[in-house]
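User: Assemble these into one structure.

Assistant: Restating your components, then the assembled model:
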Amino acid sequence: MGRHDNDRLQGTLDLLVLKVLASRGRMHGYGITLQIQQISREELRVEEGSLYPALHRMAQDSLISAEWGTTENKRRARYYEITPAGLERLKQEEENWARLTSAVARFLQYA
Amino acid sequence: MPWWSKLVNLVRGERHVDELDEEMEFHIAMRAEERRGAGLSEKEALEAARREFGNPALQRERARDADILQWLDTCLQDLRFAARSSAKSPGLTAVVVLSLALGIGANTALFTITNAMLLRTLPVARPQQLYALQLDENDTATNPIWEDFRDHQDLFSSAFAWSTESFDTSEGGAVSPVRGAYASGAVFRTLGLQPALGRAFDEAADHPGSGSDAAIALLGYDYWQRAFGGDASALGRTLRLDGKPFRIVGVAPAGFTGIEVGERFDVLVPLASEPYLRGPESMLKHGAYWWLVVAGRLKEGVPLAQAQSRLQALGTGVMERTHHPEWKPQILRNYLGRQFSLVSMARGLNYAGTELRKPVLILNAVVILVLLIACANVANLLLARSAARGREISVRFALGASRARIARQLLTESLLLAFAGGALGLVIAPPVARLLLRAAATRREELFLDLHPDPAVLAFTTCVALLCGLLFGAAPAWHSARVEPQTGLRAASGASGDRRGGLRAALVAFQVALSLVLVIGAGLFLSTLRNLTHTDLGFQPADVLLVDVDLSRSGIADAARAAFHQELLARFRALPGVEAAGASLVTPLAGNTWQATMRVESGAGQPVSIHVHYNGITPGYFHTLGTPLLAGRDISTGDHSNSALVAVVNETFARRALAGLPGGRAYSPAAALGLRFRKEFRASFSAPAVEKVVEVVGVARDAKYRTIRGAVPPTVYMGIAQEPQGSAGLSYELRTRMDLSAAAQMIRAAVAEANPRASYTLRTFDSQARDATRPERLVAAFSSVFGGLALLLAAIGLYGVLSFSVAQRRGEIGIRVAMGATPGHIRRWVVRRSLATVAAGAAGGLGLAAWSTALVRSMLYGIQPGDPLVYTAGLAILLAISALAAYLPARRATRLDPVQALRQE
């Protein structure tokens, strides 16, 4: 199935999720939300719920894997982990992102 | 997302949503906990968490949509696109859909027949529980066997006996036949059927008080519609069958047409009414006639093996109680040794299916080949189009479409075309099926099959269309997905066509091979038919009319029948335009036989037993039919009941009898004269047989008896005047040049003058001979039509490939012409290109034909599967058609203007 290349925002969310999972390892949805908010110093505030369809889709696309586990305080939670395909995709997305931002930066500098 | 996980989603949707819900609840709970930590009350914390989370139902929908909608959406997109691009080239689309419709339609038609004839179960309750009795290889029983079995059996929950019969509803004169059947009372109960109207008979009908009590009738549903307009007032009305009144008590349910595939009853009467109908010639009363099919419903839970062994035990008792007092020890031993077994009746009795199984299977194979050829053709056309669309596809690649996406798009287009073809095929299938059925039916034996498309047929057509779509869609899809975007953009024509050209040539070679197989097959079947129709029958059926006269309800006494026949024959002979006339008990090729064993006296020692086909004739029979007498004399008017018994025999009989004599005498027609043999005679239908000596006074040329294919059997002809028993039915042969309709009036008048209540049927001998070659005619006609179709498709394929290659090589041709190539050179160059393809296909086709025609050896007559003439002719036809298909592109190539061609390059 084709990727949603045209959907920038969604693409960005994917990128953030993949990045978090790649650098922090196994994590549940709430944890991912916290991480994104912390690292971006509350700059990137997406509607929290919209994370879940994205996680679901990425799991179906085998970019991440999901399984049920328990938290430190014994709650049942769904944990996500990045897959090799996800790592590959992350690399692409990072390059795309770098290209895009540098292009936009150049544009802002010289236009 | 892989498609299977989408399917999994669709199936397990609910559980999936539960997981998502739980996950989101966890999130909200965690967030609320955090807020509580920041000092909010429990309620406030939860509210805040929910607010931040957004609408969970919406997210849930989004998660699901991600799975399904996207998938469906791309499907719809593909479909819309496919429809648009098909509409853009209406000519191509029409050719593709039409050739598919022909291929799929032919297959559907054949499947409809195969399904109705060989696969479908009877429309009764739980047909799998129904079994019929079989005695050795025979599926009929005598009435004593049926009654004894009925009264002693314990393996069926109920059982019935059935026999088909033709009744005459006229009051004399030309017969107005209806199809009937006798059935014992439990028939509807056993089959689990309810009448559509009125009542069915029950067991009480098996024991009627007096003769006419049994005279009740059930109408077949179709007959009720045809003859009574579906009017409920038919109940209680009187129907005359063979002149006897029957009261209509009910109508059978629609769809139930009897227990025999291809048969249909118009009227069903109780078995017990048979003596009432047939009077002194009742088979039920006589007891030694094998005419009843016995079937029943196996008791619930009884395994078949157990029922079989129980039946064996029962059978011995049945046979011991039912043998006929008249039988000699030899026959009796035979009788007692017969073994009962059960055969499934789930699909009904299937005589038509047994006879036509082979032709139907062959035609199935033929239409499958045609469909393959059509698919190859369509694949070829689509390849050509995808070449023309190379640019479009390259652009889509460049815009970021994946290979899989492009391949899927093309496959969607193929499937759309396939299903369009399939839908049209469903429309043309029923008329084709009906046409086939009409071709398979003979004038006397109609085949009744329910050809309405049922779910099985629809499923079949859908599968075939799907398979076709994948088959012919695979090549273009695979190819386009491998196009290098750069090459595609650089040159829409030229180099990129080459690989595709190879594939297209291979497809054409495949078509050529298959169509050669079909052409050779058609050639063999046509030769078979020609051999059968030109075979020496031993008589001349042309210009002979057959009149079957039946006196059984004329009121003429047994003793007066011989005189009546004599008078009627004289009347026929006196008709203007009738050159000769005779009569016989059996007419050749009518499909029935009279067989007996004769014991030829050898002077010393044991007599020679010869199993013969017998026929009773009148003087003039041989002359009318054009069968020459080789020695001796014909039966004459001087041979009557009081003179010495004499017979005319055929060459085969004479040869067999002479060879069997002590020392083995050499055959010559004259040597057989004076031979004496013993034959059994009966004074009446039920009288004991008496052996009498008959002398051979004439030898006739061999003539076919029942079938054209079979060898001529030893045949004995005797005068019917010397038969002690007057026959109710007799067939008259009239040699006349008048046509049927002109003769019909005179014949009607002649019969009515002799006796207004005598009934008769009229037909030409030619039509009877034609009926005898029904399966061969069917196969020959349809394999020729489909062979022609296959050739046409192959020619279109070849033409398409060559045209395409000429168009692609305009530049090259232009250069050649500019360098001085003559039109002849160019033509040869193009034709050479086609030659390799055709030769490869032809070679493959010859091999395939050699293998496959050997499988139909038993369907052939007078020709070997590897007949060199047929193969040569098939090859010649194929080459001629190929040359024609190559000629047009070649001519176009020679007319190319080099300047223009080069400029375009």
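Chain B touches chain A at residues 1-2, 5-6, 9, 19-20, 22-24, 26-27, 29-31, 52-56, 58-59, 62-63, 65-67, 70-71, 74, 400-402, 405 (CB under 8 Å).
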